[in-house]
Amino acid sequence: MRPPNDNLAAALAERIGDRAILDVVESVYAELADVVAREQPLCRRSGRCCNFAAWGHRLYVTTPELVYFLSGWPAVAASAASAFPGGPIAPPADPADAALPDACPLQSGGLCTVHAIRPLGCRIFYCQQGWDRCSRPLYERLQGRLQDACRTCSLPYAYVEWRASLILLFKRGLISPSPTRR
């Protein structure tokens, strides 16, 4: 997997609000929500899983998920700005030299500031023992649908690390701590 780059940022910027892509992502998220509602995996809502370094994992996202995230960013960021001190994102002090933070920078006080537009990996991860027997094959199937969306929507496919993607989006001005800028 390659790190996100300017070509990815440009492709994403061109497709913000693309209804065909958004429909696929919404369908994928709705299917997952149905399974979660039926299976009811346990979530303690502690936010600890968002500290990737402490949990020893990484979160990866696809191009369609990033289009969905960017399309929802203005509304979610504006809402989060009023609910979370400091706004929805903790930006790197110097984006040019930003290193990956240990935890998701979109978390505040153990809560997700962008819950409505969070990626598939966040939506499917639960710390309940045994949930992975259900979630792994489901994740693979849903990822396949996101890959198919790239082909059908002529969108370049990328599978990139979430925090690195956020840094790129911040550097390119596609997201910012201020909800009035994009």
Question: Could you please describe the fold and organization of this structure?
Answer:
This protein has about 180 residues and is mainly α. It has one domain. It is built from seven helices and four strands. The protein has helices at about 5-15, 20-40, 50-55, 65-85, 120-125, 130-150, 160-170; strands at about 60, 105-110, 110, 160. The strands form two sheets. A two-stranded antiparallel sheet has the order 1-4. A hairpin with a 2-residue loop joins strand 2 (about 105-110) and strand 3. The longest helix has 21 residues, at about 20-40. The protein is globular, with a radius of gyration of 16 Å. It starts with 5 loop residues before the first helix and ends in an 11-residue tail after the last helix. The model is unreliable at about 90-100 (pLDDT under 50).
Major sheet strand order: 1-4
Number of structural domains:
1
What is the count of DSSP helices, taking H or I runs of 4+ residues?
7
What class do helices, strands and sheet pairing give? mainly alpha
* Average pLDDT number: 83
